Amino acid sequence: MLKIVAMTGMNLSSMQAQMPQDLQERSEFHWFTSSKEAGAHLHDADVILSAGRLHPDILKVATKLQWVQTISAGIDKLPLDELQQRGIVVTNARGVHTIQMSEFALSLMLQWVRKTNVLYANQQQQVWDNQVQFGELHGKTVGIIGAGAIGEAVARKAKAFDMSVIGLNRTGTPQPAFDMSVHGEDGLAYLLTNSDFIVVLLPSTSKTKGFLQQEHIELMKPTAFFINLARGDVLDEQALIAALQEGKIAGAALDVFEQEPLPASSPLWHMSNVILTPHIAGSSEHYTDRVSKIFYHNLRAMLDGGEMMNVVNLEEGY
């Protein structure tokens, strides 16, 4: 009987209730909201479900652990070296964010060009101003930094608005939804120079930390709108703030930050050309159902000797 210990504040009652009968018969599923609550159950855990964080001390307790399944795509908060040394398999929830995050990216672009913040402020103040000037997505270029599954979905939706799409990936391999695929420092420079909207969707790894520096931000058009849905540490946040304050770029939408929650002292809170959201771009009422499908597949693969999906390369960090 395989012992599964889930530790997350996310409600996993539906994951428990809807688990296929054959998996229920061969496993025990225990769900706790924290590692402290899980307590002694960790000693016998064969499998741990995590929201993407796992303290190294847990591994010392979980001596039987064989597999960690995260219910997030990011695994940068896991003790990757320790997991690799123990030979523990790690799988993530890559793919569960594609629909909601691509919709969110387009909604931010529309919010910017259609000035919904201005319109809402006018509504609250009972201001009737029909002279507000609007932009359009039509004919604009969006550059997608991190052209994976989410980037592909953003590109497909952007094409529905008659936008052009440039995608940056590691190899520059052409992808169906992109008008152009680029790679390397030269490709990045081309994307930044020629894009009206820039969407960052990079994973957080040792190779992507600080990926965008001041010199990259300075390549953007003064009319550019920058969107970060990746991780706060992929760019120099202070350089971005300076560029926004000095009008070197037009605006930004940020869902992730170097420090979360965003400190009250951050100037980003009070900038009229910035849209802030609290790391919720991947949230959806369908999230648990999508994660459950990955988990059930991998659990069955573990029990029957099949192939798991979303196995993480612990050396690469994704």
TrEMBL record:
<dbReference type="Pfam" id="PF02826">
    <property type="entry name" value="2-Hacid_dh_C"/>
</dbReference>
<keyword id="KW-0520">NAD</keyword>
<comment type="similarity">
    <text>Belongs to the D-isomer specific 2-hydroxyacid dehydrogenase family.</text>
</comment>
<feature type="domain" description="D-isomer specific 2-hydroxyacid dehydrogenase NAD-binding">
    <location>
        <begin position="106"/>
        <end position="281"/>
    </location>
</feature>
<dbReference type="InterPro" id="IPR006139">
    <property type="entry name" value="D-isomer_2_OHA_DH_cat_dom"/>
</dbReference>
<dbReference type="GO" id="GO:0051287">
    <property type="term" value="F:NAD binding"/>
</dbReference>
<protein>
    <submittedName>
        <fullName>D-2-hydroxyacid dehydrogenase</fullName>
    </submittedName>
</protein>
<dbReference type="InterPro" id="IPR029753">
    <property type="entry name" value="D-isomer_DH_CS"/>
</dbReference>
<feature type="domain" description="D-isomer specific 2-hydroxyacid dehydrogenase catalytic">
    <location>
        <begin position="17"/>
        <end position="313"/>
    </location>
</feature>
<dbReference type="InterPro" id="IPR036291">
    <property type="entry name" value="NAD(P)-bd_dom_sf"/>
</dbReference>
<keyword id="KW-0560">Oxidoreductase</keyword>
<dbReference type="Pfam" id="PF00389">
    <property type="entry name" value="2-Hacid_dh"/>
</dbReference>
<dbReference type="GO" id="GO:0016616">
    <property type="term" value="F:oxidoreductase activity, acting on the CH-OH group of donors, NAD or NADP as acceptor"/>
</dbReference>
<dbReference type="InterPro" id="IPR006140">
    <property type="entry name" value="D-isomer_DH_NAD-bd"/>
</dbReference>
